[in-house]
Amino acid sequence: MTSVPHVPVVVVGGGQAGLSTSYWLKSRGIEHLVFERRTAAHVWETTRWDTFCLVTPNWQCRLPGHPYDGPDPDGFMKKDEIVAYVKGFVAKVAPPIREGVSVERAFRRGDGVFEVKTSEGDVTCDEIVVATGGYSDPIIPRMAERLPEMIVQMHSEQYRRPEALPEGAVLVVGSGQSGAQIAEDLHLAGRKVHLAVGPAPRCARFYRGRDVVTWLADMGYYEMTVDSHPLREGVRDNTNHYVTGRDGGRDIDLRRFAREGMELYGVLDDFRDGELRFRPNLAESLDFADRTYNGINAAIDKHIAQAGVEAPPPSVYEPVWRPDAERTALPLDGSGISAIVWCIGFTPNFRWLDAPVFNGAGRPAHRRGITECRGVSFIGLPWLNTWGSGRFGAVGDDAEHVVSTIAARLEGAAPAIQAAE
């Protein structure tokens, strides 16, 4: 009988979360393996459009032992630069990674050891770190199956450039970060764009002389933990604010796009009787986004006043366009729409993990990545601990916390689950 190899720790996922975990495991001399079903930088290299760039300034990129050290800390890395940054981290960490290997099932045996079944054989371990993140499976609604075959459909992770789409108008569904930026990309290329707007917030790129991210950093927002946030764990359900770092950074104002010819609608609800059906909530969504925009700026105003900081005068955004009426139906024939880009997000994929770590909604129940099931930890999830937990900014801090807990357990101690620091 062939023996199954054993390692103390298995990390599932080789993106920045898994690589950060490997960094700290290596620093403590803990043997481990990282399984990545594709390649370490594949998300940035193969699932982003050509003009993609970060929406947070480069100075916030601080993977462990690998902070941004380029010439433009206040700029926004473009796709190729992000790929180079991640690959540079891979080279620095030199992780024991097995790329192209999928984890098919992981479960704890009766002897307390975890068995991990992969596409290249089995291993056992004492600890599993789930680093697959919260954006594994693209969401495409079932209504897509009923659309005419001649309509080209793709998810945001498949979109690359306007020229790759057939001639004609494009329907972009969703106005979070990806939807708003892809709609802008198409609009700037001169394409006719129809945008189904969702309840996503927005924020200013620059306000009172500085990047809004810099103001929020000064205000301590990025140190706020999920336990101290007014929404508590509910903040994990929030949609990210739409803004862009393109061309040095700017606001994304959907009202201005509408004034320039983009067609805006409410949330896309259905396709029926040859018509796209929308909710009558466009005005509500635009107003919500603007309230958030002005609310963030008002918080910055308060900080400036309290800190006595010299800055340009405050301002309040006033809508440059309002819908005359809510349009709830659009006949597909005659619309000129030849393609649809679905930008309605992703779902995590934890189906391979057989462990009692999920709540009633099917989400991991944890405190800063540490679950009540000894030996199972999570890393890289949105708001695992802070806003930056799923990003280059704080994933390394969370990985260090998870690894320190693992190290204590491997050494024989079993510390109680602690509140997020």
UniProtKB/TrEMBL annotation:
Transmembrane segments: none annotated. Keywords: Oxidoreductase. GO terms for molecular function: flavin adenine dinucleotide binding; monooxygenase activity. InterPro entries: Auxin_biosynth/cation_transpt, CHP04046_FMN-dependent, FAD/NAD-bd_sf. It comes from the Bacteria. This is MSMEG_0569 family flavin-dependent oxidoreductase. It comes from Chenggangzhangella methanolivorans. The lineage of its organism: Bacteria, Pseudomonadati, Pseudomonadota, Alphaproteobacteria, Hyphomicrobiales.
